[in-house]
Task: inverse folding
């Protein structure tokens, strides 16, 4: 009986592990495809703002709406396509960084699509001299 229970437990553990591996990934990726998820703006001067565009394509058969985009700090401001992005069409999220701090920079913008309770991370990197 002990062998049976141990075998049953091992089978359940293996099944759970395999199922978990197939469930990885961000649900946003199932709806939109970003051209780049990390953009390096290169080098800029102190207090010389930079902006980058994170372009994406709607890969579904329904319109996609960006519910919100928020930044990791007050020095980065995201703006985004407000109207629904139709199937196969492109949209964008523009991240504007104030460049008010010297050195290497790594800023994050979190994007949330309507109907999905998980954010997609986008990264803006570069150096302020």
Result:
């Amino acid at each position: 009986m002990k062998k049976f229970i141990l075998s049953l437990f091992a089978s359940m553990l293996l099944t759970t592990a395999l199922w978990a591996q197939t469930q990885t990934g961000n649900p946003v990726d199932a709806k939109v495809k970003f051209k780049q998820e990390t953009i390096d703006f290169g080098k800029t001067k102190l207090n010389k703002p930079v902006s980058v565009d994170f372009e994406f394509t709607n890969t579904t058969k329904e319109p996609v709406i960006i519910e919100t985009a928020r930044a990791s700090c007050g020095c980065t401001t995201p703006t985004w396509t407000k109207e629904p992005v139709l199937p196969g069409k492109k949209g964008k999220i523009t991240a504007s960084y104030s460049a008010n701090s010297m050195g290497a920079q790594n800023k994050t913008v979190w994007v949330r699509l309507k109907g999905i309770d998980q954010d997609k991370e986008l990264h803006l990197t570069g150096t302020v001299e």
Notes: The two ends are 70 Å apart (CA to CA). The longest helix spans residues 2-22. Residues 91 and 120 are 15 Å apart (CA to CA). Confidence is low (pLDDT under 50) at residues 14-23.
